[in-house]
Amino acid sequence: MRDIAIKADKLTKKFDDFVAVDAITFDVHQGEIFGFVGANGAGKTTAMRILCGLSKPTSGSATVAGFDVYKETERIKRNIGYMSQKFSLYDDLTVMENITFYAGIYGLSDKEIKARGESLLSQLGISHEAKTFVSSLPLGWKQKLAFSVAVIHEPKIVFLDEPTGGVDPVTRRQFWDLIYEAADRGITVFVTTHYMDEAEYCNRLTVMVDGRIDALDTPANLKKQFSVDSMDKVFYQLARAAKRSGD
Amino acid sequence: MAAITLDNIVKTYGEKDQKVLAVDQASFAVEEGEMFGLIGPDGAGKTTIFRILTTLLLPDSGTASVAGYDTAADYTQIRNCVGYMPGRFSLYQDLTVEENLKFFATIFNTTIEENYHLIKDIYVQIEPFKDRRAGKLSGGMKQKLALCCALIHKPTVLFLDEPTTGVDVVSRVEFWDMLKRLKAQGITILVSTPYMDEAVLCDRIALIQSGKILSVDTPANTVKKYPTKLYAAKASDMHQLLKDIRSYPGVASCFTFGESLHFTFRQDDAQNIAGLKATLDSGNYLDLVINEIQPNIEDYFIQISEPVHA
Amino acid sequence: MKQLLAFVRKEFYHVFRDKKTLLMLFGVPIAQIVLFGFTLTNEIKNSRIVVADYAHDYASQEIIRKIEASRYFEVVKSNMSHDEIEAAFKTGTIKMAVIFPANFYNDLSHLNKAQIQVIADASDPNTATTLTSYLNNIITDYQTQKAQQTKVPYLITPEVKMLYNPELLGAPNFVPGVMALVLMLICAMMTSISIVKEKELGTMEILLVSPIRPFLLIISKVIPYLLVSIINLITILVLSVVLLHLEIKGSLLLLFLESTLFIISSLALGLLISVRAESQMAAMMTSQMSLMLPTMLLTGFMFPIENMPLPMRALSYAFPSHYYYIIVKAVMLEGLGFMAIWKETLILAFITTVLVIINLRSFKIRLA
């Protein structure tokens, strides 16, 4: 059996009387690409914040890389990488300065930073842009660079919060190439998205609706379960069922 | 007469030494009563074009017209006859549903009653929540309210900037149904979206990237322009399959597409596909399936868009 | 007209539905006045004063008994020397000293006039003036009483000496200062923030695309805050009278009209800021740095303008609050009429007109 990277058991988060995350239970294996799919406001970001040690759950339990999300948030943070659509790199620093800064946070030595930074840039094919300000890079490059920076310290798990929102189709696919490469190196990838075709790229995924997880399986099995031919339709069925019970 | 025309519109932002070209010689025309889609990723220049057409920005050069009026000179006339829903949710969060609608009706010199027939279909869905503050609505309901507010003065041209971004699938489907009904009432609609799958719902579409209009045509004709044969491949180990197909000589491009891979050859001859099949069959793929498929809008977009890696 | 009403109603919804805004609008002025009020009023009752009676005669004894009877004073009888009195001031043990010279009754009965020396600690100017005016009352009382008995008018002149702060800057002067500050703060900051908020929300785009005229948009932003500011003005005045026992000596109507003029100028400044600011944070910082600080530092209610270097003085003449401060002081504290302040009013009106014109001119009908 493979090692468990993330384990959540009846994890719940309430804001006053609003239940943002409603008793979700799941396991993520080491080296797996695990997808969290749902609309804005479904609770994806809240769940991810808890797992990153940024927010305390109201009840339930969870471990990330073997550490408890209540007590060992500092140790969690040392073992994960994080990237979101909204915030990733500093616009007013150059590409290399950003790399140096983030790698420095995780305690990499100057030598390591230089070596990994250079290999990262050549892998992305932007070695000549090391001294360019991030603000003048195209959006697609920024997102790919942000991802590479998020895994520069080779974390056990990387959390990606809608990393491809609004990105052009070509770059989105290049971005997923990077995700696959990270997974091949043994990094567990936990990714949220609202592009349904991206749901297909995950090894396993859950569909989150109104704070709950109503389905969890491989894309193929989910389609079989709902007897439909695309993830889009799986999601449509789940969301419509929820709408009828809600509002 | 065309409801919207753009002629060689150029718009740059920023200071002299750091100019960013947002719209690069964009030209297209939208016919009266047409539902026209502007399709492209973030930063392609969609919002800038919307702002130029709604008289919020002046282009550096080129001319544009809406409902026969020039966007630079006749801005007051245009403001009287267009409805606009900006990309960011733009209602007062601390006002209730009804207060928002009433406010926008009044500033457009009309009343809810006067044009109720236009918004009735949409408004009845949010009416049960009319005393709820707009900030407490779900994403789908917010979009419906915003659409009501943009329609309340019976505009002849409707501008919708990314109305479905971040909205759940069910609300997205409902939203497009509503647009279809509005089109049936004769309203010209210009709508933008980053979702390629929504493109087929429009009468005609313009694909845009980096400020340039790449193609203007009906969705059906757009995909017909795909220059080569397109194949789809599927197997249990997709990542390995991707690597193998990419390394096969003669393959021009191969990329993931939902549950399968789409790929093309540099030259469409039977040897190529047969050779690839033979190579892959000698590998350890369990349930390998390869067929030729019809390209869709996203395939075409990928094909014509400039590679980000120069 | 209907558009305007709808707009104004909307603005009021914004104001009354946001607790932070409400607190800012009504809490700040009340807090300011109460704060000043408490530090000032607590001191007035039972203030320790020294009475040095070098006369020790019938008249001085009589007056001292009256002083002792007053609830404002706690009398310490001691024939201190000038140096000793000053030392007592410095340690803060006493607030005032009253000195009866030798031959007090003698002068009074033969010359029909005499002097009392009063020394007050004017580093707290409000207390100093209040105490001396109480003492004056007691002495005037005594004189009228004596005049009725003897038919010969006695004239007792208290020779008042204010220690440390002879010009009596501050004190009641704080109220006009606080008025200028609070009105400026609310008008400028709130209007600028309320417009920038619409930019951030994206609603500004819709408003611009609507047929609503820029003039109407500006007016509808101004009216709610004008009303709120007038309510605030009333609050400040009521609190000053009730809490600070400040008497409004001049015409109330004049004070209101002048204040309205000042409010309009502040609103115009707020609008100017909002045209340029891109975020609520920026609007707040700009109004604080460019309006509040100068109002506090340059209008003269904290630091006398006369002592400032020329460039600072010149700068202070550019601020509407400078003139408003002079006007309020004249009307409220000195009870002067319009003739005394027409010059300041004219300048204030001129600045306001210029600001309004700039606003109308610079209002953008497009986004950039």
pLDDT averaged over residues of chain C: 81
Distance between the termini of chain C: 29 Å
Strand order of the largest sheet of chain C: 2-1-3-4-5
**Total domains of chain C:** 2
The class by helix and strand makeup of chain C works out as alpha/beta
Overall pLDDT metric of chain A:
87
Shape of chain A: globular
Summarize the topology.
The complex is a heterotrimer of chains A (247), B (310) and C (368).
Chain A: E1 4-15, E2 18-29, E3 33-37, H1 44-51, E4 59-64, E5 67-68, H2 73-78, E6 80-84, H3 95-105, H4 110-124, H5 139-150, E7 157-161, H6 169-184, E8 188-193, H7 196-199, E9 204-209, E10 212-217, H8 219-225, H9 231-245
Parallel strand pairs in A: 3-8, 3-9, 6-7, 7-8
Antiparallel strand pairs in A: 1-2, 1-4, 4-5, 9-10
Chain B: E1 2-13, E2 20-31, E3 35-39, H1 46-53, E4 61-66, E5 69-70, H2 75-81, E6 82-85, H3 97-107, H4 116-126, H5 139-151, E7 157-160, H6 169-184, E8 188-193, E9 204-209, E10 212-217, H7 219-224, E11 230-234, H8 238-247, E12 251-257, E13 260-265, H9 270-281, E14 289-293, H10 297-304
Parallel strand pairs in B: 3-8, 3-9, 6-7, 7-8
Antiparallel strand pairs in B: 1-2, 1-4, 4-5, 9-10, 11-13, 11-14, 12-13
Helix pairs in contact in B: 3-5, 4-5, 5-6
Chain C: H1 2-17, H2 19-44, E1 47-53, H3 58-69, E2 73-77, H4 82-91, E3 96-100, H5 104-111, E4 113-121, H6 125-150, E5 155-163, H7 174-201, H8 203-209, H9 214-244, H10 252-276, H11 280-298, H12 310-316, H13 320-333, H14 338-362
Parallel strand pairs in C: 1-2, 1-3, 4-5
Antiparallel strand pairs in C: 3-4
